[in-house]
Amino acid sequence: MTGLLALIVVILFVVTIWQMSKIFKLSQLKSKSEDAQVATDKDNRINGKLMIMFLVFLYAITIYCFWNYSKFYLPEASSEHGGSYDTLMFISLALIMVVQVLTQALLHYFAYKYQGKKGNRALFYADNDKLEFIWTIIPVIVLAGLIIYGLFTWSDIMNFEEDEDAIVIELYAKRFAWEARYAGADNTLGNANVRFIEGANTVGVDLSDNDAMDDVITSELHLPVGRQVIFKLRSQDVLHSAYMPHFRAQMNVVPGMITQFSFTPSKTTEEIRQTEYMMDKMEVIKEIRKEKNKKSIAAGDGPIDDYDEFDYYLLCNKICGSSHYNMQMKIVVETQEEFDKWVATQGTVSSKLVAE
Amino acid sequence: MSAHAAVDHAHDDHGHHHHKETFVTKYIFSTDHKMISKQYLVTGLIMGIVGIAMSLLFRLQLAWPDHQFTAYEIFLGDWGKDGVMDPNIYLALITIHGTIMVFFVLTAGLSGTFSNLLIPLQIGARDMASGFLNMVSYWLFFISSVIMVMSLFVESGPAAAGWTIYPPLSALPNSIPASGMGMTLWLVSMAIFIASSLLGSLNYVVTVLNLRTKGMTMTRLPLTIWAFFVTAIIGIVSFPVLLSAALMLIMDRSFGTSFFLSDIYIGGEVLHNSGGSPVLFEHLFWFLGHPEVYIVLLPALGITSEVIATNSRKPIFGYRAMVASILAIAFLSTIVWGHHMFISGMNPFLGSVFTFTTLLIAIPSAVKAFNYITTLWKGNLQFNPGMLFSIGLVSTFISGGLTGIILGDSTLDINVHDTYFVVAHFHLVMGISALYGLFAGVYHWFPKMFEGRMMNKNLGYVHFWVTVIGAYGIFFPMHFIGMAGLPRRYYTNTAFPYFDDLSDVNIAITIFAFITAAAQLVFLYNFIHSMFYGKKGSKNPWNSNTLEWTAEVKHIHGNWDGPIPEVHRWPYDYSKLNKDESDYVIPGQDFVPQHIPLQDNEEEMHH
Q1: Rounded to an integer, what is the distance from CA A339 to the centroid of its chain?
Q2: B281: in domain
Q3: Dihedral angle at the C-alpha atoms of A43, B554, B111, B238, nearest 10 degrees?
Q4: pLDDT, tens digit, for every residue of B312-338?
């Protein structure tokens, strides 16, 4: 594909040079009159045609991008609310593409059709209240629909109801890593503050708080499938943003306050790896990485990291410093049994921090 | 109001007094609005070169993160040792690129240039209400530009917290070194910039309200003036809020206050700050930051209205609706700032409110777009370069505005927030559109700025066509990598193998960026060459109706050698026919300038 892109660029460049030389030639012929730099009928004709050609270009790039790049859109959402997010996204996209195609067509077609010519007379047409009314009311109605739909979805996502078996997890951000703190058996997070940070107690748990004793602090985020997760987000230094694109989830992490977000994962890591989308994508990526690896070894930089299997990830999406681009955490969505087994191996605050 | 203006001007009408001018009073400390406008333009263009050059550097990094470029060594020195860009300087480049383009090029370079040039000329005034304040305004802008450029040479690097400078990152020098001296200079520069902008805006408002010539009622103002006037008002309302945010940030940084800081552990110790909130800063910042988008865009739309009407040889369609939408946009722009903060931790209910107001603003914007398209309909379009850029603006304004419907929806914002989708959106709707407005204005009013000299139209055509193709080539594909979940402000995407298949798109975008930037060299050459050797055109080269084309071609202090023209009609009597529709109102001439009295054979419209 790079080859094709390069070819297109080269062609465009050649066309540009050719057009420029033509235009320079034309500019040699310009008349001596003081109107030399005002558009003539000929200029209008050329630019009118170019307007139509530009419209074709605009459609071509649109089709090209949708054809080749729409596969980049994230896979089907792995969270329960993600489905309605995607539906709303597709409705909005379809709508704006219809408006885009129509208005750009009108704009450039009119530019072509009404290109100036000496002797032509423009229509003195200053006002039409009916037209103004029509194109005020249509956006009003359409937008009202979108707003209402959007707001219902928004309120479903943000004003979530707590399920009885919801699991509470604190996501703790610091430059440039994430930690997770599970609320443990009592499902209540112990108090925490940066003022308690000391030695191994990196997230500042209040060790005198009994609720904290069964908390489990980990550097990977494991989530049981089908169970609501309530994230409490805390930062120890600057702003961060916990972005989990595959779950259509994102919330800023703000020092000095606790923000929250909730979703219910609906697909395990194993399941999403088996989807057609992910298998195709991984194949492409593996191919790319094989090339990269070869180059890297040839350049003496050694082999690059393996990437054989897809894993969900959490990434930082608010500028936080020099390694912002690499502030990530692996997310594993698994069955309840697998999850329980994993949690049991992690060790609680009381066993890890208090025992010391 | 207009009678009052006439009294004000009575003493001027005895003709122009010639003062002896030295080089210093004419070119440097000039109080003449035409010279000040040129000073703004040239300073803005120079800052633009810096800003665009920076974008090329970080586009190189984004396209080929593993490659070593000597260009880094040349331009970045120690920050680009061995051709590898330092991650800190990458952040600094995007920060300063944003700051320079938004404030120094598109606010001062666009609004500063054309408000200064056109307000007095188009309303029929000899100069701004206060020439002295105007001069001070420019020189403050100049000082702030110098400080901003100086900050590039600070040892610890220029500000690198993003152009939004959210604390605590911008407040704590031990989070990134750039938040030390670099950030201090950024804040000082912006504080001076705000002072400059306020002085300028107050001057524009007073001038428009008080110095209109006889007959120039508010409803006879060209849409350019309406746009500049309303822009100035938004600036007066919102810039002071940024100033207070900047002052509070300075206090937090240097005097131990805790407006924005609380519970922070950094560099191995807990800071004493408690009780502040970074979200407060976000509110204050975006209370300016969002209106700022319209401070940038409205002047461009005003210029476009004027240029499209003139070159279509038709009145602008729906003058009253255009004015109403400018006012509606201005009002709404001050109550939508929260849409930048849907996922900031702000109460979700507020998110709903801001979604509502944000999508409302699409309505006046849609009205404007449709009115432009209808103005083209059945026109007699003259494709001068200014006209082409105006049409280009309408195109990008639509493309970029439509994606705003997605970002303005709090739900959809969750997953595209801070991705390249946002970058594509705001570059099209505000960056590119406003730049097109700037170019349209420069091509159209170049003869007014440089005593009748005109820019070469053929170079203008090359400039336009390469730029429009390049700009879409950059920003259209960018939406798609954004929807893939690619975050902005990442030094490299190689830390996520998942993004490996997006690297081709990034390469294509960079190539388009270089082509587009090369086209701007054509413009620069054309601009400088035409300044000295441009062909002189006629006094009114575009056959336009507005008053500036009745002023003397040669620049004199006071604009009109004789009395100030009186206005008898609105500025859009293009192709108006006489009563029996046998010919134009003035036979053989398809336009009736504003200073021409109502003719016998002419029907009076409601304007």
Answers
A1: 28
A2: no
A3: -160
A4: 999 999 999 999 999 999 999 999 999
Residues of chain A contacting residue B278, judged by C-beta atoms under 8 Å apart: 239, 254-256
Residue A261 included in any domain: yes
**Nearest-5° angle of CA A339, CA A345, CA A349?**
105
**Whether B314 contacts chain A with CB within 8 A:** yes
Structural domains of chain A, count: 1
Distance from A189 to chain B by nearest Cα, in Å?
18
Q: Which residues of B touch A100 (CB under 8 A)?
A: 398-399, 402
Counting residues of chain B whose pLDDT is more than 90, the rounded percentage is: 86
- Concatenated DSSP letters of A267-286: S-HHHHHHSHHHHHHHHHHH
Q: What is the pLDDT at residue B29?
A: 87
Question: pLDDT tens, B369-406?
Answer: 999 999 999 999 999 999 999 999 999 999 999 999 99
Report yes or no on A86 lying in a domain: no
3-state secondary structure (DSSP) of residue A315: strand
Cβ contact A316:A241 at 8 Å: yes
Q: What pLDDT band is residue B447 in, cutting at 50, 70 and 90? A: very high
Q: Cβ distance B337 to A147 under 8 Å?
A: no
In this predicted model, what pLDDT tens digit does every residue of B271-317 receive, in sequence order? 999 999 999 999 999 999 999 999 999 999 999 999 999 999 999 99
Task: Report the C-alpha gap between A1 and A115 in whole angstroms.
Answer: 38
The interface pTM score, or ipTM, of the predicted complex is 0.92
Amino acid of residue A220? E
Judged by CB atoms closer than 8 Å, whether chains meet at A236 and B266 is answered as: yes
What is chain B's alpha carbon radius of gyration, rounded to the nearest angstrom? 25
Interface probe, candidates B465, B533, B576, B606, chain A, greatest A C-beta count within 10 A: B465
Q: Is residue A65 part of a domain?
A: no
Residue B361 contacts by C-beta under 8 Å, 6 or more apart in sequence?
B328, B329, B332, B333, B336, B408
Task: Write down the pLDDT at residue A29.
Answer: 55
Q: Which of B221, B245, B280 is the last residue of a domain?
A: B221
Question: Percentage of chain A surpassing pLDDT 90?
Answer: 75
